[in-house]
Amino acid sequence: MQIKKNFGTNRTNQYITAKEVRLIDQSGNMVGVVPTGDAIRLAREEGLDLVVVAQDASPPVCKILDYSKYRYETKKKISEAKKKQKMIKIKEFKLKPNIDPHDYDIKLRNILKHLEEGHKIKVAMRFSGREMRLQLPIQKGKEILNKLVKDTEDIAKLELPPKMHGNQLLMILTTK
Question: Domain extents for the chain?
Fold first, then answer.
């Protein structure tokens, strides 16, 4: 007889180390607390496997089932859950306080496009060393970000209001 190592997350058959297990048969009925050897023998008589479904219980809960079918079904459930979940990406746009109106319009168009796709938008207004010392560029940057919020208010809401973070003024927009 060839011995296979069990590398899966569930212990099966001879790899169950507990002396006694709480057994559930293939139809889902509770059999009770049974010695592990007897439980394995019952599973083999049915042509199925003994699989630990609750390792942390005392004694561990084991079920008689077809292990390869069980693994296939759990992988399929995980795959279905991954298909249903929606990935939200954060798109970052960098601006300067002295942005040209045409450049602002292009950035706004791209931000609106990404918002319609359902992405979050992170807008970073960057200031150079000279601009950090003066209050005027920072005030102008806040005005530009506030204008951006007003221009996108029909499809976006402000998740994080403009806030200084180092030499940047950051803001996050999400879809409504």
Answer: 13-82, 90-175
